[in-house]
Fold Cell division protein SepF.
Amino acid sequence: MGAVRKVASYLGLDRVEHYDDSYDYGEDVEHVEGEDWESASERAARRWRSVIEPSRIVMLTPRKYNDAPTIGRHFREGQTVIMDVNGMSTAEATRMVDFAAGLAYGCDGRIERIAEKVFLLAPADVEVTTA
């Protein structure tokens, strides 16, 4: 018996339980179709890839608020983002930081100011420490 099977047996994961009754999902189950839908297995695979692949830090210098989707895409892909808003007007920089803070909060990540008008957006699985 291999090590993995021994561990599975120890944890009680080697036994398969069979149920006599089938579950009726009824009509209240919503069927989602389309290109934007992502299955649970695809989400799990993406998360697993982000765990086993080396971390990536992306440095972005947005020039206008319309660059926000690029920041959001990198962050939602699990990448740590350093965002430098020094090249933006104060009003647009404020909007961008508000967007980034909402993005970090909504994705269970965090945002840290690391310099004047430079911010670090860290996904939930990235630990940020200061020395």
